[in-house]
Amino acid sequence: EAGVTQSPTHLIKTRGQQATLRCSPISGHTSVYWYQQALGLGLQFLLWYDEGEERNRGNFPPRFSGRQFPNYSSELNVNALELEDSALYLCASRLTSVYEQFFGPGTRLTVL
Amino acid sequence: GQQVMQIPQYQHVQEGEDFTTYCNSSTTLSNIQWYKQRPGGHPVFLIQLVKSGEVKKQKRLTFQFGEAKKNSSLHITATQTTDVGTYFCAGPNNNAGNMLTFGGGTRLMVKP
Hints:
The complex is a heterodimer.
Chain A: E1 5-7, E2 10-13, E3 19-24, E4 31-37, E5 44-50, E6 53-57, E7 64-68, E8 74-78, E9 87-94, E10 102-103, E11 107-111
Chain B: E1 4-7, E2 10-14, E3 19-25, E4 32-37, E5 44-49, E6 55-58, E7 61-65, E8 71-76, E9 85-92, E10 100-102, E11 106-111
Parallel strand pairs in B: 2-11
Antiparallel strand pairs in B: 1-3, 3-8, 4-5, 4-9, 6-7, 7-8, 9-10, 9-11
């Protein structure tokens, strides 16, 4: 069974630019979660998508947005990048009937 | 809002010593999950505890769920260098059970 995949692995942007991160969940998983993990810190919840709808968002400004496509893959967009957006962005997927989340390898975003 | 706290934040041990991390929730949890993140890696699910007072073992790892279902612990007996990483506990969010609230993690470092 293929795991959660994310692309790109690394992304370097400059302040003010926009970044798009992509996530493909495990086949059959309809829920996708996005987390931000700043260097050496914990997981900060960003967004949760299920069945194509945004179900909840964390305490992040509106310039963090995303969407979920009909095939349940998801995209995270970060507009007007700021230096403090530099972090590892993790995507996780979940099967509806269980609580366990399966994480992808992450996208390392660096804002210069 | 719901908070999940972990202590200690960091722990250095000599290989062969035992290690324990503690997790406390501000609210009663229906279940608690533990994840491990190796350096440079992504969180990987270890276990889920559901019942009050439940104890589960995985080789040298012992997981406990408190009687009041508000706290949990992970104990590693005779640590090895392969145990290095950050251990996170996570509980379902009270407002949205399909979301997880993660603790801040305990980073374990093992000296050979």
